[in-house]
Amino acid sequence: MTTRNLNRDTRTDLLLAAERSFAHKGYAAVGINEVLSSVGVPKGSFYHYFSSKDAFGEAVIARYFEQYLAEMDEILNAADQDWAAKILAYFASWRASQSFGDCEGKCLAVKLSAEVADMSEPMRLALKTGTTKIVDRLEHAIVGAAADGSAAFTGDARATAEALYQLWLGASVMAKVQRSLAPLDPAIAVTRRLLGV
Q1: Which CATH number characterizes residue 103's domain?
Q2: Crossing angle for the helix pair 184-195 and 83-97, nearest 10 degrees?
Q3: Tens of pLDDT along 57-84?
Q4: Is 31 inside a domain boundary?
Q5: Is residue 83 in some structural domain?
Q6: Which H, E and C letters describe 47-79, residue by residue?
């Protein structure tokens, strides 16, 4: 294996380890040394891969959204479903990914949004970029559902996509607070009502 591949693999390992730790404990509670030791990387090597903890956090968020969006695309590109069914499948997947102990890295945006928005401008912008791409995909799917007749939706697709994302983000926070998936039940009901399905 070349040094370049080893470096890329080590960098990826660090990002994955940090994603798990950030999703579990939050950004501020995770030290760089904790992540380095979990991957078996010497303490002095961190700055070979990242210029700062904020740059590291930004890279973790970017990698998280890259993976998240790929999974979202897989759901929304299902050939055997109409657009409304695809949207509902996406939110069913969201609901299934929520956990109270360990969300296995699938709820990083929920965990970090409020924590880092005032702490780090680069991380806030990475969150904004990622969440905007989610809303873009939801908007496209809503337009598709209206066009194929699978939803009786006639409103502003962008505003509805933003409202749905914000609804689910808030419901996910409440699910964590209550340690129950119950707050997600009204979210799916409101989603159906807004879409007209």
Answers
A1: 1.10.357.10
A2: 170
A3: 999 999 999 999 999 999 999 999 999 9
A4: no
A5: yes
A6: HHHCCCHHHHHHHHHHHHHHHHHHHHHHHHCCC
